[in-house]
Design brief:
hydrolase activity, single chain, 354 residues, 17% strand, 12 helices, AB_hydrolase_fold, two-stranded antiparallel sheet, Fungal_lipase-type
Length: 354
């Protein structure tokens, strides 16, 4: 009887918790986290659209006759593709990837594709993690993504060493999208820890561009490697902000109210200071580049701007309630808006000089 009498009270508490969470989230927009960051220059951001197109190029079955080229084409020379590996080659350990010799930009590029919703092995990689499960380099990293990165390093170490020694003036760039972004971020950590295996390549020749990455490393590692790792996030993208267990996110594709319930209770009952001070908590890696092209209470898209920082606080810590949270994760939109942002930045510079 006492339990039955307490049900209305529990219902009221639940409703208040949900209302509080919704009110907080409705007031929170993607521009808040980067509003005090500086603007990225065209020079430091110019590689991003090109690398996005290279990752997209990796999805083409016939690279000599591409079917899904973005407006203006890929700008990729098929003859410079040094190596391609598909799921049959990777045995499900990692998503397909390619090595491309960009002679125009003096760059050796390893590009890793993102998660394939139809591949169970990709889910196994992304969901293979628990809070504080894996230590690496004085911090914590995502267990499944680290294993995928180590597999790629073991498989391609000799190839990369040969290319680095054959092209001593070329940079070594790792890039990927979504799950692939987390893999290349941790691959960069593995490479830096094993420079001797790549012919003692200098750290300054190594770069990583993680596009729409999963949260894959603790804050101390994210800051320590900010000189060579960059994360690119388009507006409201959900994955770099996903602080709940990834299992819950993918379950929410079937039952979104379940996720909202869990997040309501978690946000209501857990002190934010406690969560942010947890050294095991994972974050988007390196320097952050935030592409902002929509404004609160404004309709339509505006000329995008790119804000950048190496933040310790406000590193995409909260989900944003937005109908664009999933579409902003799509690589084709990141490529398009990053190119628009780059063109806009160059136009502003040319107008200033004129």
């Amino acid at each position: 009887m006492s339990i039955v009498c307490g049900l209305p009270i529990l219902e009221c508490v639940y409703c208040l918790a949900c209302a509080r969470w919704v009110w907080q989230k409705c007031l929170y927009t993607a521009g808040h986290e980067s509003e005090n960051w500086g603007l990225a220059t065209a020079e430091e951001f110019e590689n991003v659209p090109r690398l996005c197109r290279l990752i997209l190029f990796g999805y083409e079955e016939d690279i000599c006759n591409p079917l899904w080229a973005p407006p203006g084409g890929y700008g990729i020379n098929p003859d410079w593709v040094f190596l391609r590996k598909d799921y049959e080659d990777t045995l499900g350990r990692v998503t397909p990837y390619m090595i491309y010799l960009d002679h125009d930009n003096a760059d050796i590029i390893l590009a890793v594709r993102g998660l394939n919703l139809a591949k169970e092995s990709d889910y196994a990689v992304l969901l293979d993690n628990k809070l504080g499960q894996t230590k690496f380099g004085g911090g914590y990293v995502h267990n499944g993504l680290l294993k995928a990165a180590e597999w790629v390093f073991d498989a391609e170490c000799e190839v990369l060493r040969e290319l680095v020694e054959r092209n001593p003036n070329y940079s070594l760039t790792f890039t990927g999208h979504s799950l692939g972004a987390g893999v290349v971020a941790l691959l960069t950590l593995v490479v830096v820890q094993n420079l001797g295996k790549l012919g003692n390549i200098e750290r300054k020749r190594i770069r990583c561009y993680a596009v729409a990455p999963a949260r894959c490393m603790s804050l101390n590692l994210a800051v320590r490697y900010a000189d060579i790792i960059s994360s690119v996030v388009l507006q409201d993208d959900f994955l770099p902000r996903t602080t709940t267990a990834l299992e819950d996110v993918f379950k929410s594709l079937i039952c979104l109210p379940c996720l909202l319930c869990l997040m309501c209770l978690k946000d209501t009952c857990t002190l934010e200071e406690k969560m942010l001070k947890d050294p095991r908590r994972l974050y988007a890696p390196g320097r952050l580049y935030h592409i902002v092209e929509r404004r609160p209470l404004r309709l339509g898209r505006f000329p995008p701007v790119v804000r950048t920082a190496v933040p310790v606080d406000g590193r995409f810590d909260h989900m944003v309630l937005s109908c664009n949270a999933t579409s902003d994760h799509a690589l084709i939109w990141v490529e398009r808006e990053s190119q628009r942002a780059l063109d806009w930045s160059k136009n502003v510079i040319s107008l200033d000089f004129s």
